[in-house]
Amino acid sequence: MVVLSKIYTKTGDAGETALGNGARVAKHSMRVTAYGTTDEVNATVGLARLQATGEMDTQLSRIQNDLFDIGADLCRPDMEKDAEAEYPPLRVTEDQVLRLEAEIDAMNAALEPLRSFVLPGGSALAAHLHLCRTVARRAERLTVELATMESVNPAAVKYLNRLSDWFFVASRIANDDGRADVLWVPGANR
Questions:
Q1: Helix (H, G, I), strand (E, B) or coil at 125
Q2: Phi and psi, residue 118, nearest 5°
Q3: How many beta carbons lie within 10 A of that of residue 12, not counting itself?
Q4: pLDDT digits (tens, 9 = 90+) for 5-54
Q5: Whole-angstrom Cα distance, residue 88 to residue 75?
Q6: What pTM, to 2 d.p., does this model score?
Q7: Are 24 and 13 in contact, with CB atoms under 8 Å apart?
Q8: Residue 11 within a domain
Q9: pLDDT tens across 113-145, in order?
Q10: Which is the most buried residue in 3, 8, 169, 180, by most CB within 10 A?
Q11: pLDDT in the model for residue 43
């Protein structure tokens, strides 16, 4: 259980922060950048939820929780030492990835195939979901970069990859099942 009785600690004043295993690293380290950007995705999901209702809001709520799971996963390096840890570290699972895939498939079943690329926009919810998508792609790129340097849970990378796809398909649902999508017209302004 998390208890936050004091919000500022002053321990980061010199530009370092603590990882989940207690190790201190620079705040600009690749690991901190990866999980910090995942937190940024979560903030954009909070904005999208201001427009969402019903099942879409329920799904976005689950995604927000999963994004905290990813942050907890990424802030804990040395996966090979998980068995030695006093408390088992929280790791994203393949089941979370499979849930996203099932939701994508269910939403996509209601949509006509695209014949053009979609521009971000349409409804307010769709515009917010496109913002979520682009920030999720950045989080994925940074996490993949981290994985070239240090150990990263492959399920976390898969989740971030599927998540941007989820946001894309959800944006089409938010645009009247794709009927209100704003389509790219190549060279329209030449």
A1: helix
A2: -105, 135
A3: 12
A4: 777 777 777 788 877 777 888 789 899 999 999 999 999 999 999 999 99
A5: 13
A6: 0.92
A7: no
A8: no
A9: 988 999 999 999 999 999 999 999 999 999 999
A10: 169
A11: 98
